[in-house]
Amino acid sequence: ILIILIILATALVVINPFQYLKSLVPQQAVEESTEQVSVPVRVLEVAPSNLQNTIRTNGSVIDPSSLDVYPEVTGTLRTLTVSVGQRVEKDQVIATIDPSRPGVVYKEVAVKAPAAGTVLALPFVVGAGVSMQAPLVRIGMLENLEVVTDIAERHIGSVTIGTKAELIFKAYPNETFPAVVSRLSPVLNPGSRTLEIGLTFEDAEGKIKSGMFPTITLFTEHLESVIAIPRSALLYSGNQAYLYLVDEANAAHRVNVEVGLQVEDMIEIKEGLNVGDLLVTEGQSLLTEGTLVRVLQ
Prior knowledge:
The chain is mostly beta strands and 297 residues long. It is 10% helix and 47% strand. It has helices at residues 2-15, 17-24, 27-34; strands at 39-45, 48-58, 60-62, 67-69, 75-80, 87-88, 93-98, 109-112, 117-121, 129-130, 137-140, 146-152, 164-169, 172-184, 194-201, 215-230, 235-237, 240-246, 252-263, 266-271, 278-282, 293-295. β19 (252-263) and β20 form a beta hairpin.
């Protein structure tokens, strides 16, 4: 009988070895191996938001009504009776020039201020040679200061007369000064391919001085109540942007989308996404269509 049992067991292994091996594996291990593993992800419920695009640059404060005073003769600068920042009145003598040449002596010529204002620049020192082609003094009215800056050619279409802006100065780091674009140059700088713009600003307390250098934030495109998501949630297949959504059964589904305006790390989704959708924002690179996910809190 023992020999017969051994023969039967041997025949069972030879005829159906897979069934025999399966019988040796615990049933619980078989069930665990067939259970699908879920991928941990983080999600975001899509909601409408506002997008504000900006341009950040630097500029300088100037006096657009300033006057350059040119000498009427060529000669040597003998006296300079004013200093930078000094207030001058109309017809006040601000310098004298000696037009004498070797062998010929002339009377010194006085240079007078053509208008009342504040001295902004003195490019020459006493004893220097001056000519009628170079300004001797710059006088500013300092009534309506202006901030000037240059913007790149690619931004010209988004900046117009009336575009709002904010100014921040190192002297007042915790204070912003509202400004608005009031002037656009009619031509580009051919060397730098930039456009000069001018901005007027509010300064009721007179804190801003000519020659200061502000940081400028220009507010360009503004979108309200649009769908915008973190840029990091997007994936690309060639030129096609797509993302993953999670359904009620915790399954991931790929959705192709059309993107729009990008502002820093947020990007507008024009088509393919709806308010209330659960968007995968972390772990999406591990997903395929139908993958089960486990939402992390």
